[in-house]
Specification:
By secondary structure, this protein is an alpha+beta fold. Helices cover 37% and strands 13% of the residues. Bound molecules: ligand 82B.
């Protein structure tokens, strides 16, 4: 029985639940005006309890972070009992399941994915954030097999910039940096680099470098920094992993050095770019025109309203119309009172 949320009626057509975690569930839905698929993350405030601030952290971070390898936030709806986050739908699921299905990835495929991860993390750090929960379960595949980073509930924006230390021990143990599991103060960027080293190892090997069902033993292995390198790893990949899994965070490779490492540039011959391909300052003229016609406003009025980026239904409609354009679909909204089974007749 699909529970009907009155806040979404007429705006989104809800479909099945595609994910459920502790205090949240994710449902597939269709955005009514564009017909585009979205994923709506629904969180109940009561069951969130003391985790409520994490949701606010995630919402604020995802409003700022706009990048081709970060799952896009389209709209936020808050009621007195619930949060709804309308997010980009990734139809191919988690990278975790993809690795498991292939046992482990060949270097060429791992390189394509890892360059996208480095691009997303380099961008996040450039915006003053650290993700702090990087793992294959938090990387989704879109319909073009591109990666999208999700779950910013544990991310941090250190006050006064990325040079300031963090203290909260968080994230998934197997991906957590030694300084983090030792309870020392740490830099978010250095901890993210370690997690990316674990991620690269998981991509190339299909299992984790440090693993133990007992947490204290797992922590000791992480702090020792000793792990096996299977025979199939190339010298360059072993070298890169070793530079990312340095126990001493000051000796660990930085993201600036990482984007130029030979293993990453091999066959691409260009460093990883982490600049965002989205320009929020520049509004797309076709989308603004279609919105202005639909809402009976002038283009100028429409540009002014869209530029407020309120993450309301208009923000979602603009972003989704733009996504339609990027996918080569008609930049058209469904008319309110006409059946849309056929393509819209040109006005
Ligand atoms: C699993 N799956 C299989 C197919 Br096919 C599509 C999907 C799928 O989930 N697609 C998808 N698109 N967009 C999203 C998702 C899942 N998803 C998620 O945000 N998924 C996360 C998954 N986390 C990873 C570790 C713990 C939970 C989630 C968070 C809270 C509750 C449930 C799920 C979003 C909204 C961003």
């Amino acid at each position: 029985m699909t529970s009907s949320y009155s806040e979404l009626r007429g705006l989104y057509h809800l479909r099945e639940t595609i994910g459920s975690g502790g205090f949240a569930k994710v449902k597939l839905a269709y955005h009514a005006l564009t017909g585009e698929k979205v994923a709506i993350k629904i969180m109940d405030k009561k069951s969130l309890g003391e985790d409520l601030p994490r949701v606010k952290t995630e919402i604020e971070a995802m409003k700022v972070l706009c990048h081709q390898h970060i799952c896009k936030l389209f709209q936020v709806i808050e009621t007195d009992t619930k949060f709804f986050m309308v997010l980009e739908y990734c139809p191919e699921g988690e990278l975790f399941d993809y690795i498991v299905s292939k046992d482990r990835l060949e270097e060429d495929e791992a390189r394509i994915f890892f360059r996208q991860i480095v691009s997303a993390v380099g961008y996040i750090h450039s915006q003053g954030y650290a993700h702090r929960d990087l793992k294959p379960e938090n990387l989704l595949l879109d319909e073009d097999q591109n990666l999208k980073l999700i779950d910013f509930g544990l991310c941090a924006k250190p006050k006064g910039g990325m040079e300031n230390h963090l203290y909260t021990c968080c994230g998934s143990p197997a991906y957590a940096a030694p300084e983090l599991v030792s309870g020392k103060e740490y830099l978010g960027s250095e901890a993210d680099l370690w997690s990316m080293g674990i991620l690269l190892y998981a991509l190339l090997c299909g299992y984790l470098p440090f693993d133990d069902e007992k947490i204290p033993q797992l922590y000791r292995k992480i702090q020792s920094g000793k792990y096996e390198s299977p025979t199939w790893l190339s010298e360059e990949s072993k070298d890169l992993i070793a530079m990312m899994l340095k126990v001493d965070p000051k000796r660990r490779i930085t993201v600036q050095q990482l984007i130029k490492h030979p293993w990453l540039t091999k066959s691409f011959n260009i460093p990883v770019e982490w600049q965002s391909k989205y320009k929020r300052k520049v509004l797309d003229d076709d989308c603004i025109t279609e919105l202005a016609v639909h809402y009976g406003k002038t283009k100028k009025e429409m540009e002014t309203t869209v530029s407020e980026w309120k993450y309301d239904y208009l923000t979602a409609t603009y972003f989704l119309l733009f996504e339609k354009k990027l996918k080569g679909r008609p930049v058209r909204l469904f008319q309110k009172n006409r059946s849309n089974s056929h393509e819209d007749t040109p006005r």
